[in-house]
Every structure is written in C-alpha cells, then in structure tokens.
Design goal:
This protein is mainly alpha-helical and 377 residues long. It has 17 helices and 4 strands. The protein starts with a helix and ends with a helix.
C-alpha cells in the first residue's frame, strides 16, 4: 500500500488547492445552471422568430398555435441569410418545418430544424419548451391519449391548460434541470481529475520518491494500477458530490433517471482518469501539463455541449466534437432525459466510441511509459 500512502500524502499536502479548484468549478456551474433555470421559468418576452413552413397542414397549424404565445414572427430581409440575421440580432430564433416533419418526430429524430442565437437565454428556454412539447406528442400517441392525426392539437391544448397536463410529462427535466447539472459535471470532473493527476504524477517524479518506489517490491505496472484505482475512487467521490448538488438544486425532479445519470457520470470518470494518465506521460514539464489541464476541459466542454445544448451548436462544431469522449457522454445524458424508458443497449449504441478512447489512452500510456523507462536506463 506504499503507493496509496504516497498518493494520500500528496493530496493532503495540496488539499487547499484541490478544495479551491472544486469550489470555483462548482460555484461557476451552479451560477450557470441557475441562470438557465431562471430563463426557463420566466418567459414573458416574446422572441423574434422566423418561421418557414414547407407544407401547411393541420399539424403545422396546431404547432404554430402552440408557438404563438412565445414568439413574434419576423420576416428575413431580402437577400439576408439566417446566420446573418442571428448574428446581428435581427432574430433570436429560426424554425424550419419540413414536409412530413411529424414522421421523423415519431421516430425520435429532429423533425424540425431550429437555429438560435447563442447569447439569447430566452431562445434557449423556448427550445427546451419545444423539446418538451415534441416529447409530449410522442408520449401521447404511445400512451393512447390521442390519435396520431390529432396529437399536435391535443398537446397544444394541454400546453394552453397546463393544470391538466398528465403527471408523466410534468416530471420531464428541462435543459436547466438535473440533466444540466450532469452536463456541467462533465466539465467539473474533467478539470478536477486532470488537475489531481497532474499534481500527483509530477510529485511522484521527484527523485527521492521515485527512488523509494524503485527500491520497493512494487513494479511500475503495479504502481500505475494502484494510482489508477486511487484516481478513480476520487473521481467517483466527485460524482457523488455533484449528485448531491443536483438533488439540492432540483428536489422536485428526483426520479429513477438520476441513477442513469450517475452511471453515465461514473463511466466518464473512468475515461477521464485514463485520459489524464496518458496526458501526464506526454509532458516532462508540470507547467506545460497544467496549461493543457486547464484549457482542454474548458474547450471540450464548450464544443461538446456541456454549457450550451447540443441542439444549438452548428453542425461543423458537433462534427469536430466527435474527437472528444465528452461529446458521447453529453449525448447519453440527452438520451437519458428524453427516453421514455432507459434501454441499456440503446445507451451502448451512443457511448461505444468511448471504449475506443479508453483503449487508445491505455495503449498510449503503456507505450510512452516504456519509452521513458528505456531512455532512463
């Protein structure tokens, strides 16, 4: 247990820095979540919106009836593109309703194309409301509350009389709810684990500690296994703290889904530990590693939808985000939120690329460690 004792000794030595990091990351995340929560609950301002309909029918008319209390229709100027209108704040939201959009919605796909201004909290809140509306359409048909033809009209009437909404739909989380906390947790856990691995790894490289470990009966492989276990246990502790924060912020949204969110967060904690171990092998300077440990979690969090919903990100950004495991974890959180019941096989279909990342990180760590050992000998 010599490695574990050294691990805890180093943590104790740097406990103030670790607590400070966690406190800063947590307070920033809580502030952002509360801002989203406020925007979701207070939606008095009508949002400047351009709506384009490919084919008008009863379902599009019912959907527009639902949107009417929230939006103020704005036409694009002649020759003006949607991106320009959003950039210059001429509109906050662009909605394109294609032909047969309801078919894709019933299949669980994004049947309606939406672009919004990233700096408009009102647009973000409305987007969450629209998702809730479309979820209710699917669930109403599944539960036999209405026919497919009358589904949009039925749900629109339910939104106009919210006191009569079925209890199954009331419990659905918004973007600023528990799912928002676990999306933020991807950033918090990533930043903290990378920081802790850096602190411990570079402290262990000091000559006196390194010499002590070499003299002992522990091989390099055993040392790395014990360290990985210690890092994983601490990252699980962070997941537990984040879960407590979610329960305190949104006590009315506590459902069995939170166990699925925790499972997803635990899996990400394992991934980020292997990523941190691999990155720590690549750097000889603790300052260089520290720069990467601060920049990488924040940059990947923005690209992968931790702070801004994936639906609001441009397609090019989402395509690039596939190179980060965080992207698949956030997608899994989205699945957990919107699925009527959690299916483990469906979950695996989303997060399977993460196993490739784990293999690459483990293989890279072994390869780099062996190269370093050869050069030292």
């Amino acid at each position: 247990m010599q490695v574990c004792k050294l691990f805890f000794k180093i943590l104790k030595k740097n406990i103030f820095m670790i607590i400070l990091y966690f406190s800063i990351f947590t307070f920033i995340s809580i502030f952002l979540i509360q801002a989203q929560k406020t925007a979701t609950s207070k939606q008095e301002k009508k949002i400047a919106t351009t709506v384009v309909i490919e084919e008008e029918n009863k379902k599009t008319a019912d959907f527009l009836d639902f949107l009417t209390p929230y939006i103020k229709k704005v036409e694009l100027r002649k020759g003006q593109s949607v991106s320009d209108a959003l950039f210059w704040d001429d509109i906050d939201l662009y909605i394109f309703i294609p032909k047969d959009f309801e078919v894709k919605i019933m299949e669980g796909l994004e049947g309606i194309e939406i672009e919004s201004s990233p700096d408009s909290l009102e647009a973000t809140a409305l987007l969450s409301t629209i998702r809730s509306y479309l979820n209710m359409v699917r669930e109403s048909i599944r539960l036999g509350l209405c026919t497919e033809e009358a589904s949009f009209g039925y749900v629109t009437s339910q939104f106009n009389h919210k006191d009569e909404i079925h209890v199954e739909f009331v419990s659905k989380e918004s973007i600023g709810g528990i799912r928002g906390v676990f999306d933020m947790a991807v950033y918090i856990i990533g930043a903290l684990v990378l920081s802790i691995v850096g602190i411990v790894s570079f402290e262990l490289r000091k000559k006196d500690i390194h010499r002590r470990l070499r003299i002992s009966s522990y091989s390099t492989g055993k040392q790395n296994i014990f360290l990985a276990l210690c890092y994983t246990l601490f990252s699980f502790l962070f997941v537990g703290i984040v879960t407590c924060i979610a329960l305190l912020l949104f006590p009315n949204q506590i459902t069995v889904r939170i166990l699925c969110y925790m499972l997803n967060a635990f899996f990400f904690a394992i991934i980020i530990v292997f990523m941190a171990l691999f990155l720590s092998c690549l750097f000889k300077s603790d300052m260089a590693y520290s720069c990467v440990a601060n920049v990488l979690p924040l940059g990947s969090a923005f690209l992968c939808g931790c702070f801004i919903s994936l639906e609001l990100l441009p397609k090019a950004t989402k395509t690039f985000a596939h190179i980060f495991p965080q992207f698949y974890i956030v997608q899994a959180n989205q699945y957990i939120q919107t699925a009527s019941s959690f299916q483990f096989l469906e979950y695996l279909k989303i997060i399977w690329p993460c196993f490739i990342f784990i293999g690459l990180f483990i293989g890279g760590s072994i390869l780099v460690s062996n190269q370093i050992a050869k050069s030292e000998n």
